[in-house]
Amino acid sequence: MSIAWAGGGSVGEEKESNWRVLGVRVDVITMEETLARLAEFVAEGTPHHVVTVNPEYVIASRRIPEFRAALEAADLCLADGFGLLWAGWVLGRPLPERVAGSDLLPRIAQRAAREGWRLFLLGAQPGVAQRAAEMLRARYPELQVVGTYPGSPAEEEAPDIIRRVRVARPDLLFVAYGAPAQDLWIARHRDELAVPVMMGVGGAFDFIAGVAKRAPLWMQRIGLEWLHRLIHEPWRWRRMLALPHFAARVVAERFVGERAW
Ligand code: UDP
After folding, report:
1. What CA–CA distance (Å, rounded) separates 37 from 29?
2. Is 22 within the bounds of a domain?
3. Is the beta carbon of 202 within 6 A of some atom in ligand 1?
4. Which of 22, 62, 149, 167 has the fewest Cβ atoms surrounding its Cβ within 10 A?
5. What total of structural domains would you count in the chain?
6. Which atom from ligand 1 is nearest to the alpha carbon of 123?
């Protein structure tokens, strides 16, 4: 269902989000409002899919209809990338702030420790989710991580992974299989998984476990996180062509309208 918090609206007041960039929905919501929304999802108990939209997602969604459908069906679409904020500025519809999955995960862990929410960390290289769980537990000793498992997004592994998740009964499931695989996987299995909050988190476990280094704050603030990743993971260059593609399309949307795509 396409729902979102109204920009400055109070918690509890929902309305249809009409913020779109190149046709992809992004919910107008702050980090604090996101945490409140997740608390509601946990209380409701039915499955919810949270997606962290960045320029690569937007471009990929134009190529992969199943991914586009997954984003459209998501319960919450967060503005993960700096590029989204930039697009808001170019299009004259500013977003309140960036809500990056990598920033959100530690905030959720903090809240989860307080509220008794149960977390499951799925994906990343063997041992990484386990290490991330240990780091989070060291910071928030009350935190309940009820499962970690590397697995893979391969469909033949899905029944086993789903069984593991169901036995653990988490309130929140974080999936690190990279985009778009992680969100396609959640969308395909959301009803069988039956977890109140399911979210693809990309490299977040790697950052928390210390396997990968996130860009320094100053680079994040001026929109150069992509450059840091490119320097450390040069094989990403092809994927990153999505960034200039996105920028050119946004500028075209600004001057020609949505027909530009
Ligand atoms: N990953 C995985 N299985 C896969 C592909 C990726 O576990 O088949 C993990 C990878 O180890 C990393 C995470 O997915 O921890 C995110 O990868 P990436 O940084 O490419 O994601 P992005 O945030 O760029 O989408």
Report:
1. 10
2. yes
3. yes
4. 167
5. 1
6. 7
Return phi, psi of residue 200, to 5°: -80, 135
pLDDT level of residue 259 (50, 70, 90 thresholds): low
pTM above 0.85, yes or no: yes
Q: How far is the CA of 86 from the centre of ligand 1 (A)?
A: 25
| Angstrom distance (rounded) from CA 109 to CA 207 | 14
Query: Per residue, what are the HEC states of 8-56?
Result: CCCCCCEECCCCEECCEECCCCCHHHHHHHHHHHHHHCCCCEEEEECHH
Positive or negative torsion for Cα 249, 253, 256, 261 = positive
Q: What is the pLDDT of residues 81-113, one digit of tens each?
A: 899 999 999 999 999 999 999 999 999 999 999
Question: According to the 3-state scheme, what is the secondary structure of 88-118?
Answer: HHHCCCCCCCCCCHHHHHHHHHHHHHHHCCE
Confirm whether 9 is domain-assigned: no
User: Cβ(177) to ligand 1 under 6 A?
Assistant: yes
Residue 1 belongs to some domain of the structure: no
Q: Does residue 61 contact residue 54 with C-beta atoms inside 8 Å? A: no
